[in-house]
Design brief:
homodimer, mainly alpha, Multidrug-efflux Transporter Regulator, Chain: A, Domain 2, 11 helices, elongated, DNA-binding
Amino acid sequence: MKKYTVKEVAGFAGITIRTLHHYDEIGLLVPSERSETNYRYYSENDLLLLQQILFYKDLGIALNEIKDIIQNPGFDVVGALIQHRETILKRQDHLKALLITIDKTLNNLNNKIMKPEELYEGLPKEFANEYRTEAMEIYGEQSVLQSEKELLKMGKADFEQLKSEQKQINEKLFSLMGEDPASESVQTEIQKHYVVIRKFWGASNQVDPQWEAYAGLGDLYVSDERFTSINGNAQPDFAAFLNAAMKQFVMRKKGG
Amino acid sequence: MKKYTVKEVAGFAGITIRTLHHYDEIGLLVPSERSETNYRYYSENDLLLLQQILFYKDLGIALNEIKDIIQNPGFDVVGALIQHRETILKRQDHLKALLITIDKTLNNLNNKIMKPEELYEGLPKEFANEYRTEAMEIYGEQSVLQSEKELLKMGKADFEQLKSEQKQINEKLFSLMGEDPASESVQTEIQKHYVVIRKFWGASNQVDPQWEAYAGLGDLYVSDERFTSINGNAQPDFAAFLNAAMKQFVMRKKGG
DNA sequence: TCTTGACTCTTACCCTACGTGATGGATTTC
DNA sequence: GAAATCCATCACGTAGGGTAAGAGTCAAGA
């Protein structure tokens, strides 16, 4: 019969040596042999036992219960599993309730703090709510609410990164303003713009590419200078350029 | 300003005094006053803080994170909640996976051990599998499998209780055998019988009242003496009585 | 005023399932 | 024969308190 040292056993079981020591300490898995110098040696049978132990452990069962299960032969495994199943169901309910509470709380904080001050931070503050209202009119209320939900789920760091991406792209596009809206360099940048905008819309969840909405956004840029103004100064040329590039982009996508 | 002792605070907050001590120890909630004799006195403001603490604790947030949240004013509560939300989602996935594994394991054990020896414990053992087969023919395989699943979910204690309920009802009905199957006393007991039988069928999940199946069970009682025999002795009279009462019951229900 | 019972304080060990050293001996490898 | 690994046994730490032990404090009744 082969014998295995702690390191070997820990190796194939994917656990630490300390864990084996611990299981020995609490009498859960006592190695079937000790050398003269007190080294632990595990038999193949010990390995099989360990496999069972780890199986039950993966199910989230406590070690002393596992001890009962594997040490007395007539133990009611089925009963234990069923009971454990119920425990898990209760924990699931608990988590579900937690989620609901958190979402409610987030909604509250959202209505009070998040929307004007964080979510639409990039826009002038007095326009934030107005922007939201308009966006709802244009894209539909559900769409905007969904989008905001997705943004909230992203986490703040990601949101910040997204904003900075958008800023960079806008700057790049602004610098390309003289060129043909249909040129490759402009269209490449517009592609990025499209991706970021879709992320803002939380489009990741939707199958529909929403090209119509993107084209509509181009019109919005032209008709409402707030979206393209820089430091409070309107940029009608930039708006027109963006709109043209965006329309070109959508046309190509729909055509191809 | 009123001051509150540990016992009072623990009282309205629904926590133990030890918990307050602990929160004091770790600096989470230090009472704003100590008497000369070192008694803790909590102000109303302390109570408000405690409320917040318990709110976050209910969300499953760790105490040192709560400490961060309530102690530095500019803390990113929204970010923390969103991150915690994700943690919860992960835990949910984990639990879901556990449930699947447990169910698979139960199914395995079920096919090998559970069915003859536990689930149909009340019947003579040599008939258990036969009973199961017949039940499948009568009610449909899916129905029986679903029913067994429900029984497994019930937990062993509940299952035992259900069996004992059924036994009691059967004894009561047996004692009523001389009476009119349509009498109130018999019908009242049959109503209970119906409820228990439906629980055995796992009918809780189904909208359909399944009166047809219940009526069919009455026929089964008459045609197969095993279902009504007592200590191995056939009771054809009892079977006929039961069947009559059950048919009467179903008729009334369908009529009303 | 004294006593009694209820209350409070600190100290300190208990639980899970190990992690993380410290220290010293054993074994293997060059 | 020395260096590198491996093994062993303490022993303390984690989160969130539970559960005493032993001693001091408070309010109320006799």
